[in-house]
């Protein structure tokens, strides 16, 4: 019924329902909240102390305002199942799923770092062409592992990539999908989307060195001064020309561009 109510009321309702757990509280007896790590459109994550294993962990909660809608619950459950099944050093492993009177939760490894968005904001880091290609390649290698299992992330964006000691880890599998059987058009589109999103990340990183001098915003091809190899990789990732057929192919091209790029 709420969906017919106007947007400001919906947002207010959401805020009241999505009460956060303050530091020092516990989610269930086992998990003491240290602090909130972040919240997105459908979940809120907390850094917690797991008092049984005596170690830190991350607990993600499905927003209470979202839990009544089947679609969001299905996304939340799928995210847990995928994270539980995947075994990769750059993907957090999920260990348990539970339900309390306050909603649905799952527990995963805590990644001691910050997401790329926070990192750039906090450090004002400027990525040279080589740095930008190196980091994008690091992310692409994780995506290559996923695609090899016909898993498509679907939401590769800077707040969903964590940086731990300079290396990327991929989180937030809420929009991910796994395919079986013969390849469909949807699967192809999903692959293309992940490749496009890698291009978008590369472009974002390259823009960290850009300083606006012109009053008018121009297209990136005019605002950025890139080497021919880097520009070619970017255009292919973004599907402007000759798109890459696979992430593996993109990784190879990034490697070549990186070797040629100046420090
Ligand atoms: N396993 C984790 N370890 C450390 N921080 C995390 C972890 N998972 C999420 N976060 C932090 O919480 C934020 C929101 O988590 P995310 O899974 O992206 O939720 P949403 O689906 O709501 O976007 C992330 O951008 C990141 O900063
Ligand atoms: Mg997210």
Q: Summary?
A:
This protein is α+β, with helices and mostly antiparallel strands. It is 40% helix and 20% strand.
**Helix-strand pattern, N to C?**
HEEEHEEEHHEEEEHHHH
Total count of helical runs of at least 4 residues: 8
Specify the structural class: alpha+beta
As residue ranges, the low-confidence spans are none
Distance between the termini: 57 Å
Strand tally: 10
Give the biggest beta sheet: 5 strands, antiparallel
**Ligands, deduplicated:** adenosine-5'-diphosphate, magnesium ion
Spatial strand arrangement across the major sheet: 1-2-3-5-4
Residue share in β-strands? 15-25%
The average pLDDT value, as a whole number, equals 92
Helicity, as a percent range: 25-40%
Choose one word for the global shape.
globular
Please tell me how large the radius of gyration is: 20 Å
